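User: Please predict the structure of the protein below. I'd like the answer in structure-token form so I can feed it into my own downstream comparison script.

Assistant: Understood. Taking the following sequence of 235 residues as input:
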Amino acid sequence: MLPQHVGIILDGNRRFARELMKRPWLGHKAGLEKARQVLGWACERGIKYVTAYVLSLENIQTRPKKELQLILKYFGNEMDDILKTADHVVHRFAVQVRFIGRTHILPDALQEKMFLVAERTKNYKKHTLNIAIAYGGQQEITDAVKQILLEGLKGTIKPSDVDETLVRHHLYTNGQPYPDMILRTGGEKRLSNFLPFQSAYSELIFTDKKWPAIQEKDFDAALMEFSDRRRRFGK
């Protein structure tokens, strides 16, 4: 059985570049190119939702300035490609693109491109891609709690209304199923603040392959491992 929703932590770009004795930002460029490929593989296999962890809030705070500038530049170029290229994977597979995170802290010009991409793809229904950028899972929960409190102060929510379903409806991924599977590349074995609420019963799959080095057979192997597991959902 295939997962309906796959979360992916795109890790290992800088180490991939280092192994090739290249600048770290070239690893990020290769990572974006790989993301296009992997999205296509997911769509071909009928996976409806993909959430890609592209850039964390911590990354924004700790990455060297030049590296961060180039990461955002490459990301902006990808947005341009989506807007200008009719055969981009997003259009070929009718993928609705959404952006989750505290995107208001990103440069205004990049926010405008992201808005245009979201508008351009909002009527696509076959697949959904959530791009987690300027994202932190604890911060997502914090934002949800703030919104619930504001609605409580307005009298539209009572304390007795607060349950898992209400919180879920205030998350960035509202309206979507929780991820069935989370794949992390790069050899690390942790979630790193990625979808902590939604991933409570996700199957976690880790690979030592750096993100730009992932091949189609590796992706299929992860899907096979998922299908071989018996999901218990806490039972």
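That's the full token string. Residues 5-226 form a domain with the Undecaprenyl pyrophosphate synthetase fold (CATH 3.40.1180.10).
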